[in-house]
Design brief:
Signal peptide: 1-28
Number of strands: 18
Mean pLDDT: 90
CATH superfamily: Alkaline Phosphatase, subunit A
GO molecular function, one term: hydrolase activity
Pfam families: Sulfatase
Family: Belongs to the sulfatase family.
Helix content: 25-40%
CATH class: Alpha Beta
Number of helices: 14
Keywords: Calcium, Hydrolase, Metal-binding, Signal
Strand content: 5-15%
């Protein structure tokens, strides 16, 4: 007599086993057949194809470059970003989200879910900007796998376009090795550039594992075309298979290059100058609830002149730089809009989880006090008056294919970072590390258009994505045991705007500038002057020997003073001591030591007798 209850149970267990096999990474499956002396004595078994969890959405991570907190209209800026506006209106805006202060560290933390020194990206992967120490050799270990590797092994197709920035220079030829190219870090298709910056019309362009010739169009248009092509081909072949796209344009990193069609949209819009810009953005941010209603605007950096004190030539030159930058940002938003439109038209948008990080650090201070157009025609050491004269003579080249190093003056960097102090590279300051985040997923976000103030960091996006998809963090990737994550999932905040922050402690360090955050308090050091301290009148000063022990620590209570205006170091010495001790612990735990700053990088040769090659 058949026991139907047992039969049904066996059927249920068999089905569960098959489904489990379909959702496990291919590398985790062990052979389940039996091998005898003959076929009759053997049981055949085939490895099951890997499948993503049932109903898993597509995932897109978008990260822009060098934008600044107060630039986009989505977060109170006066530069139009209608695509980001629409995504935010249907999603969530995070106003307390953080990056690492400069590009490669941010991208390494983002892709791995770990702190940047922990994955060896304390500086860059470039030969001249890396060092032969565990926190600085620029080689992400295999034990610190990327989001692309995890999703690839869980049934996703994985694509990347735009800026990668994490391939060591010595590996970045067509001879490889390719294990530290995007293809070696989990991306099945790649189109973009491996370095930190490139010309937007003649880029150092790579497709998959080979350099290719650019076609003369702006790179942002090309990477968008490729992203759409990758998705189209995949969707045609496997319409139910989800994809992960890492979309990382060079915009708005220098060179600021965009056609007149876009830069002329802002003709005359910045003639009132950076002081008016800051005030206008600050009021917009209050009106939108981006910043507290009781907030005050920090004073203009003392090394930046009041706009009304500038000469007519200075105003003309500086305003044109900002017109180009603004057009470049709006153009980048337009290209993202093309991608969003394709997903909508192909019926995929409602099934796509999108994260947008508007900048991998604060706005760039690398354009000097007067702005730059071309290397070779403008030295950083020129007096501002001479730099302005040269820029005026070449003003027609700003933003064009001939403007190979177009970057705006420092005054506009502070304006783009409204309401914060300082800028890119300053890992001590919110102006260097606080960047806007948008989370969009219409099926899973019911509180559309609302703001989140929970503390977050780029290393949070990997665990956030995995939790939302229901994919466990793997103990191994392709046989390599994985190290711990430092990021914290933000999923808890998707449905609860008042939930307390779960990411409660985070360090920051870039070339001597350093800080540590814990439970609403932050201790920080603005380590200066350095060899690229362009905020100094007359340019950088390399004659002063810096002693890290003589650096002055500051203390801020960010819960009450979010843009760091009231230094409480003398009032709460015990809290300062506690945070300094926390930084010391982090420095040892995450490979921050030895301290390295710009002067070390540019005046000392790091002899690499042995290149780190960690498994």
């Amino acid at each position: 007599m058949v026991d139907h209850k047992q039969k049904n149970m066996r059927k249920t267990l068999l089905t569960a086993g098959i489904m489990a096999a379909l959702t496990l990474p291919a590398t985790a499956q062990t052979y389940k057949g039996t091998v005898g002396r003959t076929l009759a004595e053997s049981t055949e078994w085939w490895q099951q194809p890997t499948r993503a969890p049932q109903g898993a959405p597509n995932v897109i991570w978008i990260i822009l470059d060098d934008v600044g907190f107060g630039a986009s209209s989505t977060f109170g800026g006066v530069i139009r970003t209608p695509t980001f506006d629409s995504l935010a209106a249907a999603g969530l805006r995070y106003t307390n989200f953080h990056t690492c202060g400069i590009c490669a560290p941010t991208r390494s933390a983002l892709l791995t879910g770990r702190n940047h020194h922990f994955v060896h990206e304390g500086g860059f992967s470039h030969i001249s900007l890396s060092a032969g120490f565990p926190g600085y050799d620029g080689r992400i270990p295999s034990k610190d796998g990327t989001i692309a590797e995890i999703l690839r092994d869980n049934g996703y197709n994985t694509f990347a376009v735009g800026k990668y920035g994490l391939t060591p220079d010595e590996d970045a030829t067509d001879a490889g090795p390719f294990d530290r190219w995007p293809s070696g870090k989990g991306f099945e298709r790649f189109f973009g550039f491996l370095g930190s910056q490139t010309d937007q019309y003649q880029p150092d362009l790579v497709e998959d594992n080979a350099h290719v010739k650019p076609d003369g169009r702006n790179l942002n248009e090309q990477i968008t075309d490729k992203a759409i092509a990758f998705i189209q081909a995949q969707h045609k072949a496997a319409p139910t298979k989800p994809f992960f796209l890492y979309y990382a344009p060079g915009a708005t990193h220098a060179p600021h290059q965009v056609s007149h069609e876009w830069s002329d949209l802002y003709k005359g819009k910045f003639d009132e100058g950076w002081d008016v810009f800051r005030e206008r953005v600050f009021e917009n941010q209050k009106r939108l609830g981006i910043i507290p209603a009781t907030a005050t605007l920090p004073a203009r950096n003392p090394n930046i002149k009041a706009w009304n004190s500038l000469t007519a030539d200075q105003k003309k030159v500086y305003a044109r730089f900002m017109e180009v930058y603004a057009g470049y940002l709006t153009y980048a938003d337009h290209q993202v809009g093309r991608l969003v439109d394709y997903l909508r038209e192909s019926g995929q948008l409602d099934h796509t989880l999108i994260f947008v990080i508007i900048g991998d650090n604060g706005a760039s201070k690398e354009g000097t006090l007067a702005g730059t157009i071309n290397r070779g025609t403008l030295s950083r050491s020129l007096p501002e008056e001479e730099a302005v004269r040269r820029n005026l003579d070449s003003l027609g080249e700003v933003g064009t294919p001939q403007g190979h190093n177009t970057n705006y003056p420092l005054g506009w960097a502070q304006a783009a970072n409204t309401p914060f102090k300082y800028w890119k590279q300053d890992a001590n300051a919110e102006g260097g590390t606080r960047n806007p985040l948008i989370v969009y997923y219409p099926k899973g976000i019911t509180d559309a258009g609302s703001i989140r103030t929970q503390y977050g960091h780029v290393n949070d996006l990997l665990p956030t994505t995995l939790e939302f998809l229901g994919i466990p963090f793997p103990s191994q990737i392709r046989g390599v045991t994985q190290d711990t994550l430092q990021g914290t999932s933000l999923v808890y905040s998707f449905t609860d705007r008042n939930a307390p922050s779960r990411h409660t402690e985070q360090y920051y360090y870039i070339f001597g500038a350093r800080s540590v955050y814990k439970d609403g308090w932050k201790a920080e050091v603005y380590h200066h002057p350095d060899i690229l301290d362009l905020s100094r009148p007359g340019g950088p000063d390399t004659s002063i020997h810096r002693d890290y022990d003589k650096d002055t620590w500051e203390l801020y209570h960010l819960d009450e003073d979010f843009n760091e205006q009231v230094d409480l170091a003398s009032k709460y010495p015990e809290k300062l001591a506690e945070l300094k001790a926390q930084f010391e612990t982090d420095a040892k735990r995450y490979n921050i030591y030895p301290f390295i700053d710009w002067q070390d990088v540019f005046t000392r040769k790091f002899h690499k007798t042995v290149l780190y090659d960690h498994p």
